[in-house]
């Protein structure tokens, strides 16, 4: 089979699409023919060696996928050959097939496209944990989402809207603003044309209740300055590649709560909240209330191009690799 893999940590240029051995289902595992695999910012960190955990080389990046069960190993249960499924793993999804524990798979509803399923779980669950459990968003709250047209950002716009919040989407172009409005944003702010802090204060009549920040860099502090007293600022990552330094006097004077939420460890530390969030989120998906915006589909051979689009923050919504037949 074909897989996109790296043999050394480093830049995107290290990625090569190569022939590798087909996976074999071990005990309790299923082999899935991958129809679509989502591209996420952490894939870049894993490839570069900059993620919190390192996986042995050579490695196939990719954490989200959907497809059809091809084979089952001894003791595998809960799925059958031919089932439409989706799953998430730390690495391994940028390939034509993958072997994973059968327990890690979930059934894709008949009314949902496999591509939608591949693009859903990681970013939407990140957004749901951030808004539902970490920020404790309530109906009517003003929620500002930075980097709102990216994968996590657009998911946060939709989830916050589903929770009854009033959403302000901060983006870098009119085109991205239009997509955010289509997905439920009440208002938008263009970083390049408007003063972020002042515009948030104007739109909210004093300050935001919640800021969701997957970007970092130069936008974090202005957004923090624009929170209402007692607001919540949730850090989800640093897509700008720059970790900001927050003046603690702002935290003191504004009574703001600054929180971090990291998907890899959230369920470990808050298992009950994690289970509740996932059950609620998947009900939204099954009911069709939440569906990801897919900004582009690439053949497996163009995996590097998709990763560059994410790295350079050109992606709108989620980008997908399509390893199956064109």
What does this protein look like?
- The chain is of the alpha/beta class.
- The protein folds into 2 domains: 2-120 and 293-322, Alpha-Beta Complex (Quinone Oxidoreductase, Chain A, domain 1); 122-266, 3-Layer(aba) Sandwich (Rossmann fold).
- Helices cover 31% and strands 26% of the residues.
- The chain has helices at 41-48, 114-118, 121-134, 151-162, 174-182, 196-204, 220-225, 248-254, 263-269, 271-286, 303-311, and strands spanning 2-5, 16-19, 29-39, 64-72, 84-88, 97-101, 105-107, 142-145, 166-171, 187-190, 208-213, 227-235, 257-260, 294-299, 318-322.
- Strands 3, 4, 5, 6, 7, 14 and 15 form a 7-stranded mixed β-sheet that branches. The protein has a 6-stranded parallel β-sheet with strand order 10-9-8-11-12-13, with helices on both faces. A two-stranded antiparallel ribbon has the order 1-2.
- Helix 3 (121-134) crosses helix 10 (271-286).
- It starts with a strand and ends with a strand.
- The mean pLDDT is 94.
